[in-house]
Amino acid sequence: MKKNIYPGHIKALSILFLSLFSFNSFAVTPSVMGTLPSVVVESSGLAFTGGASFWTHNDGYGDENLYKISNTGALTRTVEVLGAVNHDWEDIAQDAAHVNMYLGDFGNNNCDRTNLRIYKIPHPSSVSGSTVTAELISFSYPDQNSFPSAWMNFDVESFFHFEGMLYLFTKPDLDAVGYTKMYRVPDQAGTYVATLVDSFYTNDRPTSADISPDGTSMIVMSNSRLHLFRNFTGDNFFGGQYTKISISGSWTQKEALSFYTNNVIYLTDENNGAGSKLYSVDLSPWIPSPTTTSISKSLREEEYVIYPNPANTFFTAQFNPSGITQSELRLFDLTGKEVRKVSGAAGVSLLKMETASLPAGIYFYKLYTDNIEVRTARMIISH
């Protein structure tokens, strides 16, 4: 597994490359669904529990409660977590089967904590009473040797559960802003040294993260951006298809994120005068909904070729047309505006996109077969 942990001699080159090829190409405006209850002073974690309900919690207020809210923000239940202290609860996670829930007490603004914890509890939706009792997962970072650390990249506000492991994402500060590190910790009670798995140049400060119910999409969120990764293999999340999406509308401090469906997410923000709201965001333009079309009709990776890239006057998409009744190639500019579209009927194995009249620059293409998105990637046009 790769460990892209920003060694100093390649950091400048990496930043230059990503500044050229990673743009805020798309934007969404969250829809306000409701106002959070007054007991939730600072919602810092959010977990969809099924039906139309979520669990949330406060951030570092000495409040060891979980609050169940509706999808309009109404408070429906309160559960106290026994055996836990809210030193700085920053996020909430749950396993796919909703058997256990995890509370991340790993807020570390000064990068000086030696008591980093995750509390493991029975999922409160499966408990009828008003309390649950926590087990303790303690951990430390393998690359932190001083407390406090002058290199401010040991604060964490984001994590999720995936296949028996907890994946944590740092919130860098000051000169460390740039790369977000990803650590892995087992989901069983005990004391561990976290495994430093990978890093990614987000160039901002993540506040929450989640993985989709089907396990094929992952989002790391900051106050103003969603970093979306799709179609990864195993836990190589940063190796997946990457899309950066700006959060438009009035700025508030976005603190919590949860998938609602595979392509709809909910967010919460802090009560800083304009916040303390519950929002929804439709991500179907980037995470297409499944269709009834047979999976056998969708293209496998080896069955298509997009070339040339960079393109001058044209580029083509070539694929195996067997079993496909229609195909479509779309090209978008960096604002998300569709600038070209080419379609093919049954039996067509090659789509040609003319680009001679388009300005040179970076674009994104999407290839569809039978209304299934099978490929999204950058296309550079150079004249």
Task: Describe the protein in words.
The protein contains one helix and 30 strands. It has 383 residues and is mostly beta strands. The protein folds into two domains: 275 residues, Tachylectin-2, Chain A (5 Propeller), CATH 2.115.10; 87 residues, Sandwich (Immunoglobulin-like). The strands form seven sheets. It has a five-stranded mixed beta sheet with strand order 1-20-19-18-17, with no helix packed on it. The chain has a five-stranded mixed beta sheet with strand order 3-4-5-6-10, with no helix packed on it. Strand 24 and strand 25 form a beta hairpin. It is globular, with a radius of gyration of 22 Å.
Distance N terminus to C terminus? 38 Å
Number of strands: 30
CATH class of the largest domain: Mainly Beta
Radius of gyration over alpha carbons? Answer: 22 Å
- How many domains make up the 3D coordinates? 2
**CATH topology-level name of the largest domain:** Tachylectin-2, Chain A
Give structural attributes.
5-stranded mixed beta sheet, 2 domains, 383 residues, Tachylectin-2, Chain A, single chain, 1 helix, mainly beta, globular, Immunoglobulin-like
Compact description:
This protein is mostly beta strands and 383 residues long. The protein folds into 2 domains: 8-282, Tachylectin-2, Chain A (5 Propeller), CATH 2.115.10; 295-381, Purple acid phosphatase-like, N-terminal (Immunoglobulin-like).
